[in-house]
Amino acid sequence: MPNDNTVNSCTNGLSIVVTGRNDNYDGNFDDRLIRALSRNILYLPDAEFIYVEWNPISDKTPLANKIKSLLPKVKCYVVHPKFNKTYCTIDEFLEYPAKNVGIRKACKDYILCTNSDVIISPQVANSMRFSKLDKNVVYRATRVDISIDNLDVVFPIPEKDILGLNEPAGNTPLSLPTNASGDFTMVHKDAWNRITGYCEEFPGQRIYKDGLAIYLLMKNNGMSWKNLGQISHWRHASSWSSLYHKRAKVGDIHWNYMKTDFTRNKDSWGLIEAVEEERDGVIWLT
Fold first, then answer.
1. Quick one: pLDDT at residue 18?
2. 43, 72, 177, 240: most buried by Cβ count inside 10 Å?
3. 95 with 19: CB under 8 angstroms?
4. What is the spatial distance between Cα 53 and Cα 109, in angstroms, rounded to a whole number?
5. What burial letters (b/e) apply to 100-134, b meaning 16+ CB within 10 Å?
6. CATH number among 3.90.1210.10, 3.30.450.40, 3.90.550.10, 3.40.50.720, domain 14-285
7. Adjacent-strand bridge partners of 142
8. Is the pLDDT of residue 209 over 60?
9. What are the Cα distances from residue 131, in Å, to 20, 42, 128?
10. pTM beyond 0.90, yes or no
């Protein structure tokens, strides 16, 4: 495992938001999430880590309980299943409303929304911790896809291990850095609040809401962007990079969010009005 040779101090206040569900997605979701969280905590020791579990299977113990027992540093929230149909009609797990919960619970100045199977490289982590961050910049990263069997990730990732590179801008519309933006988007909390997080409208649409957030941040709010470096992503069987347009329950793959009139969510975005109830160190939203 690579060493983090920086001193154990942090000049930037950072919150890291990840999401999941207790369905062991693709057979090893729990392992991938816990491995990624453990590595990211190592590289970002002073950051606030938030896990939001969306619509847990009711007859199984929430994954949040396991995470809390193994990684007590992580603040864990579980969203009661009753909320799911309010936001989406086509799937049981909703990444972006879940991330909105994390954004609204975050206490630090800069909030990174990332995915459960992403490991942040020491280079990116050091930039997040020690560089002079700008409230008017969207911070992105290059996602490097690797094999699901490559669990002990080494940075920089050897070329022989790379299955695909996802540069932030890629061939995206207007050259905006929307490519794989669900895997790594960090902005100041004021910017998240201005756009009210990720879009919670269009209940038949699950994908591209990460791109819409980038569009709102940059085109509507005049922000620029910066690539901080590499992050790793395990290419699992059902990942978008494996199945592309064949994946079910994602909505219209031709949806053009730039032609919608969406600008902000309702004031209650991120389930901010939901009742909090603590159960064994985990906070349920009911």
1. 98
2. 177
3. yes
4. 23
5. bbbbbbbebebbbbbbbbbbbbbbbbbbbbeeebe
6. 3.90.550.10
7. 230
8. yes
9. 30, 18, 6
10. yes
